[in-house]
From TrEMBL:
This is NADPH:quinone reductase. Keywords: NADP, Oxidoreductase. Residues 10-320 form the Enoyl reductase (ER) domain. It comes from the Bacteria. SMART domains: PKS_ER. InterPro entries: ADH-like_C, ADH-like_N, ER, GroES-like_sf, NAD(P)-bd_dom_sf. One of its GO terms (molecular function) is NADPH binding. Pfam families: ADH_N (PF08240), ADH_zinc_N (PF00107).
Length: 323
């Protein structure tokens, strides 16, 4: 099979398309014929040497979308459409940047859809994280206001779609004024240019602040996001687009505005129920929901895809197609 192999931390030239033996699943594991694999910041962190617990050489990819090729236990039927994600994929064992991947069955979520593989490949990890952030992380309710810090990334688009479907009012940020239209087209009620003082812009619209905020940029913008949130409101720290995720010398009383709650979200395949995935895909098929723009690359152009991911050149989700 063809697969992308990361020889070690470093530049995109460390990503090479190679021929590898077809992996053989042990009992409890499943071999998936991969059709598409979404790109994530996690893989960028792995390539840059920022991720912990990674051994090299490694096939990256924390998610994969395709069909069951072999289940030695006979639990899943060959040809069944599935997604797989997380749980060590692309870090402690080979991941989704390959024509075939072998994963624990516990990380596999089945579905049925006639959507194109390019579209399906953009869904699993993005949907899991957006859904978990809004439910477990924020407990978002209909009628509430939500600020998304980093709205033009794939996760921002997904969170907007889910929040709007729930009945929330969405404010979302971008650093580029020329991307405000993309936010508005996706249904954002109040697109904002991130000038470093988003809290002031939010409170000009909502003097008490937003009910909930989703932090996707990282710790550099977190204090401003907290200031944009009302007393008894909640901020969920989920993303790290800035590649910064720690707060040096954290002093809670000095850091957190009085009465504002700070949570975090980091989920796994088991946090995306199969019925939630199926319902989302069905609504995508009717046009009722969208994850936003999807940009597809053939496997041979993985270096281009990683360059675009690292430089933030694209609005929306990047996906590798295996065939």
């Amino acid at each position: 099979m063809r697969a992308v192999v990361l020889s070690g931390p470093g530049p995109v030239t460390n990503l090479e398309v190679r021929r590898l033996p077809l992996p053989v699943p042990e009992p409890g594991w499943v071999r998936i014929r991969v059709e598409a694999a979404g790109l994530n910041r996690s893989e960028l962190h792995t390539r840059l040497g920022l991720a912990e617990g990674v051994s090299f050489p490694r096939v990256p990819g924390i998610e994969a979308t395709g069909t069951v090729d072999l289940d030695p236990d006979g639990v899943l039927t060959p040809g069944q459409q599935v997604v797989a994600m997380m749980g060590g994929m692309g870090r402690t064992f080979d991941g989704g940047y390959a024509e075939y991947t072998v994963v624990p069955r516990t990380q596999v979520v089945p579905f049925r859809s006639e959507l194109a593989w390019q579209t399906l490949g953009a869904v699993p990890e993005t949907l899991q994280t957006a859904y978990g952030s809004l439910t477990t992380g924020l407990d978002l309710r209909p009628g509430q206001t939500l600020l998304i810090r980093g709205g033009t990334k794939a996760l921002g688009f997904a969170a907007t779609a889910l929040a709007k479907d729930l009945g929330a009012t969405v404010l979302a940020t971008t650093r580029s004024a020329d991307r405000l239209a993309a936010l508005e087209d996706h249904g954002v009620d109040h697109p904002l240019v991130d000038d470093g003082d988003v809290a002031a812009q939010v409170r000009a619209l909502l003097p008490d602040g937003v009910d909930a905020a989703l932090e996707l940029v990282g710790t550099p913008t977190l204090p401003d996001t907290l200031r944009a949130t009302r007393v008894h409101g909640t901020v969920c720290f989920t993303g790290m687009l800035s590649n910064e995720w720690t707060v040096p010398d954290f002093y809670p009383i000095g850091y957190l505005p009085t009465g504002v709650r700070l949570t975090a979200y980091g989920g796994d395949a088991t946090d995306l129920p199969a019925d939630v995935l199926q319902r989302f895909l069905d609504r995508m098929a009717t046009g009722a929901l969208s994850l936003g723009p999807v940009h597809a690359y053939p496997l041979d152009r993985v270096r281009d895809a990683h360059n675009d991911l690292e430089e933030g050149r694209r609005v929306g989700k990047l996906v590798l197609l295996m065939r």
